[in-house]
Every structure is written in C-alpha cells, then in structure tokens.
C-alpha cells in the first residue's frame, strides 16, 4: 500500500520551501513553484494569495527558535549561538532567502514583524527591567551580525575559527546585551 499523496497546498508549500532558499524570492517564480509541485500556476495563487504570502508563510523560523528561548536565561547566549552554528541547511537557507528578499518593498514590513515575533518578543518577555525591549533587540542584532558574517559575507577567518571559541566569545556578547544594566549607586 502506498503512502497518501500530499494535498495540492502541501505540495506547493514543499516546493516553495525547496526553491526559495536556493533561488531567493526574486529568483523563484510562481511558475517555478508550480512546476516543482506538479500543479497549475493558478493553484499557487488560489491557495496562497500571492508569491509574497507564500514566501512569508514558508520562510519562517519560529518553531525552531522558541525552544531555545525557553532554556535557562543565564545560558542563553552560548546555547543560542551553538544552535545557530550547528543548524542545518534549512535555517541557513531561510536566513539567506530572507536577507535577499529584504529588497522587496512588500516583504520588508512582514520581515520586521517576523523578526519581532520569532525572536525579539519571546526573549523580551523573559527579561526584567525597563530596558527589556532594547536588550532583546540588541541580542537579535548581535546574532544577526554573526550570521551575516558567516553566511552572507562568508568571512574566511571566522569560518576557519574553532566553533567552540566562537560559541564562547559570541555567546558572551549575547549574554552581555541581555543582562540588565548595572544600577548606578549614588
């Protein structure tokens, strides 16, 4: 007995998840997705509304990041950096696809929303103090900087550096920005 065939919508979603990370938002057409899924291009629009909506629905990392943000706060920096460096091609591909798509006007506001939903707000909810939002945003910027250097720029020196050293040093940076600022004593 053969396995059940995925629905048309799931076939389209799977095709988009394969193509967007490889070819980017601009380099992947609705026709490409439909061809990969074995469906008529009109079905892509019927099920997802637009290429932009399909992109934003499939290029998300929320599920992968939430368990990381639930661990002990005093170990979050190293734990998060280690996870990002050990992650498979999917997370790297999604990150690169999102970076490339940031040139598309309609995608930018949704990217900002996804950034907040996937990382900033869950981390902010765990932090105390009046500057919790700032610290969560700084942590996102620190992590994003490392991923940019490794995956976009492909900094050869960083790529050749022992991963444990990067985890220790960069984890300390993340930890430093999420820690509350020391209170001034009069």
Give the tags.
elongated; 2 domains; 186 residues; Tetracycline Repressor, domain 2; Arc Repressor Mutant, subunit A
Could you explain the architecture of this structure?
The chain is an all-alpha fold and 186 residues long. The chain folds into two domains: 8-58, Orthogonal Bundle (Arc Repressor Mutant, subunit A); 62-178, Tetracycline Repressor, domain 2 (Orthogonal Bundle). The chain contains eleven helices and no strands. The chain has helices at residues 8-23, 30-37, 41-48, 51-58, 62-69, 76-86, 89-101, 108-124, 132-152, 156-160, 163-178. The chain is elongated and about 60 Å long. The N and C termini lie far apart (77 Å). The model has no long low-confidence stretch (mean pLDDT 85).
* Beta-strand residue fraction: under 5%
Round the mean pLDDT to the nearest integer and report it.
85
Overall outline:
elongated
> What would you report as the Rg, rounded to the nearest angstrom?
19 Å
| SSE-based structural type | mainly alpha
What's the N-to-C terminus distance? 77 Å
The CATH homologous superfamily of the largest domain is named Tetracycline Repressor, domain 2
Number of helices: 11
Q: Main sheet, how many strands, which sense, barrel?
A: none
Task: Flag low-confidence runs.
Answer: none
CATH class of the largest domain: Mainly Alpha
- Note the run of SSEs as H and E: HHHHHHHHHHH
Helix content: over 70%
């Amino acid at each position: 007995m053969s396995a059940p065939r995925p629905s048309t919508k799931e076939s389209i979603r799977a095709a988009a998840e394969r193509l967007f990370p490889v070819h980017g938002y601009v380099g992947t057409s609705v026709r490409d997705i439909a061809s990969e899924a074995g469906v008529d291009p009109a079905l892509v629009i019927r099920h997802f509304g637009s290429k932009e909506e399909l992109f934003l629905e499939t290029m998300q990392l929320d599920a992968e990041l939430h368990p990381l943000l639930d661990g002990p706060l005093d170990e979050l920096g190293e734990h998060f950096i280690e996870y990002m460096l050990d992650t498979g091609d999917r997370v790297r591909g999604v990150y690169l696809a999102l970076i490339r798509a940031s040139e598309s006007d309609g995608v930018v506001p949704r990217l900002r929303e996804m950034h907040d939903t996937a990382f900033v707000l869950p981390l902010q909810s765990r932090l105390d103090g009046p500057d919790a939002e700032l610290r969560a945003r700084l942590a996102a910027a620190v992590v994003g900087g490392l991923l940019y250097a490794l995956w976009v720029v492909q900094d050869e020196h960083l790529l050749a550096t022992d991963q444990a050293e990067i985890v220790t040093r960069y984890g300390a940076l993340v930890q430093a920005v999420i820690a509350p600022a020391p209170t001034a004593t009069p």
